[in-house]
Amino acid sequence: MSKGKTSGNKGFYDGDKKERDARIPVYYKCGLMNNTIQDVLRQRPGWEEARDDGEWDFNWCDVGWLRENFDHSYMEEHVRINHFRNHYELTRKNLMVKNLKRYRKSIEREEGRMEASKCDFFPCTYTLPSEYHLFVEEYKRIPGSTWIMKPVAKSQGKGIFLFRKLKDIMDWKKDGTRSEDQKDAAQVESYVAQRYIENPYLINGRKFDLRVYVLVTSYIPLKAWLYRDGFARFSNTRFSLSSIDDKYMHLTNVAVQKTAPDYDPEKGCKWQVQQLRRFLTAKHGREKIESIFKDIDNIFVRSLQSVQKIIINDKHCFELYGYDILLDENLKPWLIEVNASPSLTASSKEDYEMKCRLLEDTLNVVDMEGRLNGKEKRVGGYDLMWNDGPVYREDLNLETYGSTFFTANTHLGCMNDRENHLHKQRLQRQFQSRKKI
Length: 437
Ligand code: ADP
Description:
Layout: E1 2-3, E2 26-30, H1 36-43, E3 47-49, E4 58-60, H2 63-69, E5 74-75, E6 80-81, H3 88-91, H4 93-111, H5 113-116, E7 125-128, H6 132-141, E8 147-151, E9 161-163, H7 170-176, H8 180-185, E10 191-195, E11 208-218, E12 223-234, H9 247-250, H10 254-257, E13 270-272, H11 273-284, H12 286-306, E14 319-327, E15 333-339, H13 349-366, E16 378-379, E17 382-387, H14 398-401, H15 418-424, H16 429-432
Adenosine-5'-diphosphate binds near residues 157, 196 and 337.
């Protein structure tokens, strides 16, 4: 099987992005149906859907397609695909934690404890059944605390439950003590047992987590962009630790919440991240909230660095990650998980519009049209957060602040005046000439 357009009549990509010609039409393939991504691709001027058996320049595929096809395929220089080959090193719950633990250890060795403590943003986690005994040791340190069990390879809250007693997870213990032959005969699904954040930050008595989008366009060197928009997902039921069986109280996934008997799709259970930032700033003050958002930036960068040497870097690949972050009552942000296929299905008109903006800007950064010069610190709603090192804001007055004070170029939850910005960069033309569908 061949990938990409083989007609190759134009030199499209010269490696450092200085002299890129437009390759129009861009033939795209999309493995997701009935989705915002389909609409965005269809509406993009100069882009055409590739025929079923035809060649393509751009592929928004699902991870199943990647697994089956990536290794047997040839890709021309200019071709782009929306996953890295082994994305699961960051996006599978057990592997993410394994990589973070190893990364933390290496920082402690090389830079000391203080620096390593900056990696303490993920709850204590063990893979079961393989780490059952280690888990029990930790469990016994604080008896009676709450843990959450999550299947490593599922999403949308499927298979998740909370527990306080070891007898509730006997199945995983049995497997941990079986012989290898017995294990083959009765495979038990792998889970992670993770310390449950028992003191989440509550708004109107409800728990929420944040879904934020990070786009990685290269791992070596690491180049990562942070989107200004995102949202907080609230649970439908007031939080309490007295009942650990109520998934509507403890799991904030929209897929779970929308099955609640009293779920109202119009009221929904989402806030835009701008609304959340305003709320928190009014309550706790600007300085405090800026420092919390800085801590959240630290989570993005360190988690990406933890897999930087492990992800198979490939110039054809980019990845749009959906980060799930939970705030506790002390406003400490915790990394819950990273998704390789964040839901692009919209739950309301506002959500649809946000996801279209996000996807249009993702395509603007990936830049199949060759309109960028490669030096941009901002494209639409994306701010360049890391480019082989931290990226700082341009509006900084170093004379005022002194040369040791830098502010990161991130604006999560700030105004997303992307249309103005795209206009300035002359990237807006697709919005004016949107195709009718
Ligand atoms: P999934 O991939 O199935 O969505 P997550 O790890 O994102 O699994 O967990 C689902 C939800 O459960 C989260 O959105 C969050 O509300 C809740 N949750 C998960 N882990 C924890 C934890 N350690 N402490 C508190 N709440 C958690």
